[in-house]
Write a structure and sequence with these properties.
By secondary structure, the protein is mostly beta strands. The chain has a single domain, classed as Immunoglobulin-like, CATH 2.60.40. It is 0% helix and 36% strand. The strands form three sheets. A four-stranded mixed β-sheet has the order 2-1-4-6, with no helix packed on it. The protein has a four-stranded mixed β-sheet with strand order 3-8-7-5, with no helix packed on it.
Length: 184
């Protein structure tokens, strides 16, 4: 391989056509798409292949990166035409939980989004590190969890939760440590 992680934007599911109410687009066949993990300061190379019948892009939400990699068609780069690909390569300077998503039409609402986790240079001492994703359906005013149906139970283990919301909102990280006074 040439150092790039290949991600394919493609149609999926029973809807078949973008006008269908059940049509979804995916990265690599899943919604949300594959979680990308990298250490802060390492190079990230992603080749985005567009198998859709329409142009697409990938915007790296909240990540400080070169403008040419920002994925906003008509502003920072040209859209990725059907049947072509685009190579993103950058070095995330900040650790955190981010997300990447299409920046063309309603593609993000149809499933083109996923998490990008940039790990700290020194690992955080936690026993588990779950990622949760909430898909905010703005047209119906409801939210459904796509990664976890209920929050993990907090116990004596130290946990870090990585919530990711697929609306235009920032992501955040919550680190939980046991409270010695509560017995939890």
């Amino acid at each position: 391989m040439d150092g790039f992680r290949v991600i394919r934007a493609r149609p999926h599911g029973p809807g078949g056509a973008p006008q269908s109410p059940t049509f979804v687009s995916t990265y690599d066949g899943t919604v949300p798409g594959p979680t990308l993990r990298i250490k802060r300061g390492e190079d990230l190379g992603v080749r985005v292949v567009n198998d859709l019948a329409e142009p697409t892009s990938v915007h790296w939400h909240g990540v400080r990166l070169p403008n040419a990699m920002d994925g906003v068609p008509g502003l920072t780069q040209a859209p990725i035409a059907p049947g072509t690909s685009f190579d993103d390569r950058f070095r995330p300077p900040d650790a955190g939980t981010f997300w990447y998503h299409a920046h063309v039409g309603a593609q993000v609402d149809r499933g083109l989004y996923a998490a990008l986790i940039v790990e700290e240079a020194q690992p955080v001492d936690v026993d588990r590190d779950p990622l949760t994703s909430t898909d905010a359906n703005r047209s119906r005013g409801s939210s459904t969890s796509t990664a976890a149906r209920r929050a993990p139970r907090v116990d004596r283990r130290r946990s870090r939760f990585r919530p990711m919301r697929s609306g235009h909102a920032s992501t955040s990280r919550i680190r939980l440590r046991p409270n010695s006074n509560s017995g939890v």
